[in-house]
Specification:
Blueprint: H1 2-39, H2 41-52, E1 53-58, E2 65-66, E3 72-85, H3 92-100, H4 107-119, E4 125-130, H5 134-142, E5 150-160, H6 167-170, E6 173-175, E7 195-197, H7 200-204, H8 206-210, E8 214-220, E9 226-233, E10 241-242, H9 247-257, E11 263-269, E12 275-281, H10 295-302, H11 312-315, H12 325-334, E13 344-345, E14 348-351, E15 354-357, E16 365-366, H13 369-374, H14 378-388, H15 390-399, H16 421-428, H17 434-440, H18 451-463, H19 492-507, E17 524-530, H20 537-540, E18 559-566, E19 573-579, H21 585-605
Parallel strand pairs: 2-10
Antiparallel strand pairs: 1-8, 2-3, 3-4, 3-5, 6-7, 8-9, 11-12, 11-19, 13-16, 14-15, 17-18, 18-19
Helix pairs in contact: 9-21, 12-14, 12-15, 14-17
Length: 607
Amino acid sequence: MQKIRSYIPMLHRRSFMMFTLQGISFLGLGARLYYLQHLQEKKYKTLSNKNRLKVDIIPPKRGLISDSNGRIIADTKRIFRVEILKETMPKFEKSFNFLKRIVKISPEQSEKILIKAKRSRPYTSILIKENISWREMAKLQVNKNDLFGVNVNLGETRKYLYNNLFSHVVGYVGKISKQDVKDQDDPLQFVPGFEIGKSGLEKSYENYLRGSAGAKQVEVNVSGQIINEIGDIQPTRGQDLEISVDLDLQKFIAKKLSSHRSASMVVMNVQNGDIKAMYSQPSFDANIFVGGISYKDWDKIRTNKYSKLVNKSLAGQYAPGSTFKVIVALTALKHNVVDDEKLFCRGYTEISGRKYHCWKKTGHGKIKLIKSIRESCDVWYYHMSLKVGIDNIAKMSKKFGLGIKYDFEMSPQASGLIPTKQWKQENRNESWYKGDTVISSIGQGFVLTTPLQLAVMTARIATGKEVTPRITKHSSNGELIQNNFPDLGVDKKHLDIIREGMYDVVNHYRGTARNYKTSGWDMAGKTGTSQVRTISLSERESEEGVIKNYNLEWKYRDHALFVAYAPAKNPKYAISCVVEHGGSGSGVAAPLVRDVLNKLYKLENSV
């Protein structure tokens, strides 16, 4: 009994200590609850809202692109996109593998998605697939309770209605990349699958076509699925763009050039500078770039030996051949060195002990300026070029738009090359020789031009104005492009002589393009054949003579060129045509231009 009594004080002490500790714990818990519920209310309410509320950027609808008659060539179409909010999926890869059973995703795409998921910013959606089928949509709806963080959103993408017809002009869109982001605050860079212009007018007019983003605030559940839309700000649609290219003419040219491996043609309105057609052969289907191109398709296009991706009209650089002779003739007229009574072509001429051959082995006989254009005599230009010098020829070339880049709405644009003595010294560390001038006078040697430049040169000869090209009526910032062209400052009498020679090229019985008169307007033109291989003296003087183009491998054949304007008396259109390794300018390029002018005449005169 005594032992029991001795335990009682001990029991009281233990109980007291236990109740004291419990009391302290409850007080601490209460203090913590008070701290969290009252003092930290604002902080945790914000965190809760961050988990519950989500702001989605609404991309704007891209502006449409149409031809000169308002026919749409670049449209938009609605698609469904599957996205995942990574933060709602602790086991992302496991969930992603489950999703792959429902939505067809290639191993290549799968690898890209996993890499992007690891690098993505917090609270951003990751695009899994766009343009899903209705079958895939149905499967997603059936399994939506097992797909935490997965949402299907309605979006829009580009659709090119004519596949490869406008690919080099209009260009294409593709998914935005880090290299494309110039404004770090642009919210559209975080929109899954957002596409921007990557080439052509799509790129040049990106800000014009894009519009501005909107936003919507949504409430999500613990799985990251949208359960309520709270509010939104609607996006502003991009502006539509009308280009000067005519769909029917572009179709016709594409068909005409399709039989050639590599070619280009530019049709230009000489009165206002409008590009009525611009086609580069071969082309490609711009739609394969929309949504991202596969490695296989990209490699196939990139390695194409005929340079599918290159817009040859702008970036292709070619020796202009005899089309350049009109510039040399104008330079000779300006400097008053033309002496038609003394020149005689016997098939070659000797300068500083070296023979320089004319294309016509038997020669042209007595030669005058207009005849030299009409029959394209090389010897006349050899002598005239030495009288005026390469630097004066270069000045005249620049006046007619050669060797320069234009303030044009498209890129990349090559500048070509019009050589001078200074250029050779600075770039080759060599002196300029007489032979350099002689070879340059017939559009060979260092001289390089683009098809667009040749069209501009022809337009300026036809009008005497400083015609510059345009493919839209508005610049990329919305300003109206002016077309009040100033005079070139070239003597009209000199231009009339050149025009007479170009008229005879087509309409005189001895002209180099006499077989290709047009059925509608009369045209004036100039043939050109640009040599791409070196012809040895032994080959030239052999009994068989120079090997014919059709006996050569394709890559060693001459380029075929032709430039023209029409109508001859009241010019409206200028055309340049280059057929790579096509052979003869008169036999290959001239009939193409004739057919295009006949088509243009029908289009303008059809009821």
